[in-house]
Amino acid sequence: MTDELPFRVELWDQGWQRRLETLATAGDFLTAKAAFEAAVKRRPREPILLCDRARIVLRSGENSEK
């Protein structure tokens, strides 16, 4: 097992040009998705990504579930 967890929830600037902060890291998708959903709920107008290493899995504003 590596020291780096594969999933990250990241806060980006408004133009999606620069990562401002890593909000959460997780070792599995379900935990990462829960952290992503909580971050989007807490910061609904902020650009937030859920990444699996270099791959973007979810982007706030695209997959809004109601």
Task: Describe this protein with a few key phrases.
21% helix, 1 helix, four-stranded antiparallel β-sheet, 4 strands, alpha+beta, 66 residues
Describe the structure.
By secondary structure, the protein is of the alpha+beta class. It has one domain. 21% of the residues lie in helices and 36% in strands. The chain has a 4-stranded antiparallel sheet with strand order 2-1-3-4, with helices on one face. β3 and β4 form a beta hairpin. The longest helix is centred in the middle third of the chain and has 14 residues. The chain is globular. The model has no long low-confidence stretch (mean pLDDT 91).
Overall mean pLDDT: 91
Shape: globular
Figure out the total of helices.
1
Q: What fraction of the residues are assigned to beta strands by DSSP? A: 35-45%
The count of strands amounts to: 4
Integer tally of domains: 1
